[in-house]
Specification:
- The protein has helices at about 10-20, 30-40, 50-55, 65-90, 110-120, 125-130, 130-145, 150-160, 160-185.
- It is mainly α and about 190 residues long.
- The chain has a single domain (about 5-185), classed as Up-down Bundle (Four Helix Bundle (Hemerythrin (Met), subunit A)).
- α7 (about 130-145) packs across α9.
- The two termini are about 20 Å apart.
Length: about 190
């Protein structure tokens, strides 16, 4: 990864501690945050702007202190830039959780997918504008695992253990494909 955008381990640990704590009453947890930032990065928005930050924290101030809130926002922007750097330099994005899912119980990967879908919903029209069928295919594992879309057909997919395992294993490649589709369409 390009060192200019490498996120220090201490910053990532501090983010994880805060995002998974009760002090983070309005934001996504650590896994959801990574999914959210990933979707912003690979999708048409491309960056963690003020509108996306407002959605991330449900239009609430993340911390009582304005300076601490600003510092937290900058850490999240740095994290998003580090995700972008990985993809921009052609590396495979490693998720901060194992690529395993359970048909009926939420886990870290389903939390990651919830975050991914929350960011996709911010720009849903823009996501599907270019080629709705292709985007639907590329985002199907995230849609299924997030369990945010109420569709009986998705429930059938979620209960098929073999299909679920196949879909989860494809997520890193799908992230790369989405990034290239939106940010290198002629490649």
């Amino acid at each position: 990864m390009h060192e200019q955008y490498a996120l220090p381990g201490t910053t990532l640990e501090a983010l994880e501690t805060f995002l998974d704590s009760e002090a983070n009453a309005h934001g996504l947890d650590f896994m959801g945050a990574h999914g959210f930032l990933t979707a912003l990065t690979v999708g048409p928005r491309g960056t963690l702007d003020d509108d996306a930050l407002a959605a991330f924290f449900e239009d609430e101030q993340p911390l009582p202190d304005a300076a601490a809130s600003d510092a937290l926002r900058e850490q999240l922007r740095a994290w998003q830039k580090s995700i972008h750097a990985v993809l921009y330099h052609g590396s495979r994005l490693e998720l901060p959780c194992t690529l395993t899912a359970h048909p009926t119980e939420p886990n870290e990967l389903s939390d990651w997918c919830v975050g991914f879908m929350e960011a996709l919903f911010l720009d849903e029209d823009r996501w599907y504008a270019a080629d709705e069928d292709e985007i639907a295919d590329l985002t199907l594992p995230m849609v299924v695992l997030s369990d945010l879309v109420d569709d009986p057909d998705l429930q059938v997919l979620r209960r098929d253990r073999k299909l679920l395992k196949d879909m989860t294993s494809q997520i890193p490649e799908l992230i790369t494909a989405l990034y290239l589709l939106f940010h290198a369409p002629d490649a």
